[in-house]
Amino acid sequence: MPSHGAEIIEGVPVLLKDGVMYAFQYGLVNPPTIKLGTYVATTKKATWDPVVLPQWLATYRRNLVARSRKI
């Protein structure tokens, strides 16, 4: 498993950088700012933030559905 770049970890789209998982944000130009947790590539172990992850995931899913319906 890579240690940097865009990945899907446990079903969640993230950007990996130096062992930190940031929220994947479609069309993001600036560096990511929402830290979702940490990831160790050698053990493939993800540690999620129990507060930030559920909030961000709910927003991500809501926006994903809204964007997909704009035809």
Strand order of the largest sheet: 1-2-3-4-5
The residue fraction in helices comes out at: 10-25%
In terms of DSSP E residues, the strand content is 35-45%
Count of discrete domains: 1
Q: Structural class from helices and strands?
A: alpha+beta
What is the N-to-C order of secondary-structure elements (H for helix, E for strand)?
EEEEEH
Q: What kind of sheet is the major sheet? A: 5 strands, antiparallel
End-to-end separation:
35 Å
Q: Average pLDDT across residues?
A: 83
| Gyration radius, in Å | 13 Å
Shape: globular
Number of helical elements: 1
Strand runs, count: 5
Low-confidence stretches: none
Task: Describe the protein's topology.
Blueprint lengths: L4 E5 L2 E6 L2 E4 L11 E6 L4 E4 L3 H17 L3
Antiparallel strand pairs: 1-2, 2-3, 3-4, 4-5
